[in-house]
Amino acid sequence: MELKRRFTLFGFGFVLGISLLLFFLNGKNASCIFFPNERVLDILRNKPRIFSEEVLQTMSDKKIDTVSIIDILLKGDVDFSKSKTRQEPCRYYWIDGYLQEKEASIYVQNCDTIVTIQQVYIK
């Protein structure tokens, strides 16, 4: 009898907790990203982006569009050993990925309100 009562109380509390979470988080863009690589890429994707003159020239020469660069921000890997993650006021990240099925890297400046694509390297 005691075990049945415990499971009933547990079930009631569990359902109540889930209901409250759904009520408070409903309509909010809440996410839980654990890995540092994914956190950095999520931050870079959600800020307005500009491209340096050097990057625009490289994109023009190699016939690369901005969608390809942004694709690296979706699927790339942050190389923290080449990044300057503690620099102030802006942090710099080295991101490896693929452009037109070739290995490529971008160097990104992350400031408070804007992200600047500083350099593009195609191997």
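The above is record 1. Record 2 follows with the same two-line structure.
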Amino acid sequence: MVKIADIELGDFPLLLAPMEDVSDPPFRALCKQHGADLMYTEFISSEGLIRDAVKSVKKLDIFEYERPVGIQIFGSNIDSMRKATELTQGANPDIIDINYGCPVKKVAGKGAGAGILQDIPKMVEMTREIVKSTHLPVTVKTRLGWDDDTKFIVEVAERLQDVGIKAISIHGRTRKQMYKGEADWSLISDVKNNSRMHIPVFGNGDINSPQKAVEYKNRYGVDGVMIGRASIGNPWFFNQIKHFIKTGEELALPTISERVEVVKKHFSMSLEWKGEHEGIVEMRRHYANYFKGIPDFKPYRMKLVTSLDSEEIFNTLSEIQHEDFVRR
């Protein structure tokens, strides 16, 4: 049984990665329903929380059905991160996660996210202060290092554990790699197999099939895996992995009708949580993934991504549900 502090997550937990503009409450609800064991919110700016910025504060929304759920924060100023931790604690998550992995320039370039990998002492000090300022378990999401010359993750993970984190998720790339090339899990394995490590170590990067999840579980010995891009438009992925672990067989893919039912549910929750306009616009990024591989789908996708009328979108989805794509 893998545990973060007292939170039991099962024998090989599957975590939903924090993804900006993706891991919102509607999407998390679907991933939970389809097998995710632990989910994290989109990352939240510490400065935004302190300024009471609407977008940042709204990301604190979590719901009982999601538990266990972690709220992820990022920032480059230790004092701001400590204050943000206290504000985050007020939203009553199960876990507070620190983002030391985001590689995008507007974050890392300011010394936040993966940017802090250029200053490991500050990273350790910030973590210590965050742990001290909350009664909740603190976890970390990070990368192997800033570049190929600074892959100090084995030592870094040990130092973060020593200041009190309760689990670590490691993306198998450096900041310089962004999302290019192949994720290197050998160093993640070195962290897990370090005899001084006693907290859960989760691997992240390139898990795009149930077979790969099982292969990496066996080869690298991690406590669980964190799923990011492979879950977008595919919340079934978590149960597909669980089924393959249990039986060695692939779970049947959802039918088009089943896909549409989930899309309708996702869209309904988005409208409820975000309002009409934002709910419609932000749903657009998901359609291509939900309906990936369906022949002659482009006319329907164009209707879905250009309409600004929710009733029209629901009608289009119903058309898709009753269309015979196989015979066309």
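The chain has two domains: 3-247, 256-322.
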